[in-house]
What we know:
By secondary structure, the chain is mostly beta strands. About 0% of the residues lie in helices and about 50% in strands. β5 (about 45-50) and β6 form a beta hairpin. The radius of gyration is 13 Å and the shape is globular. About 35% of the residues are buried.
Amino acid sequence: QVQLVESGGGSVQAGGSLRLSCAGFGYPVNSNCMAWFRQAPGKEREGVAAVSWITYYADAVKGRFTISKDYAKNTLYLQMNSLKPEDTAQYYCAFRWGGCSEALSTSKYTYWGQGTQVTVSS
Length: 122
């Protein structure tokens, strides 16, 4: 049974930083594809970043966000720097077996966490 448990969301002022964590249970993070998505009110869920052996980023977060895995802790992270009000959303981690083809496509992921809220004020 694959389970994903996110943590680390919160409220921060523009320009600040947050780190999201996603603890994984029931699978190895190793080379499988994991990703972060976000969904703002009234908008569709969108891919933010993904990682297998290499990383993928949405244009909106390149240079500001960093996705990483801790193999020992079986945990996925998203370090978010230089946050903007438009980054405000519910953030979800996701997992799928195998590689990261179409890495930021929501339809490619099988397992999802419950989400954690990130709010950035101006």
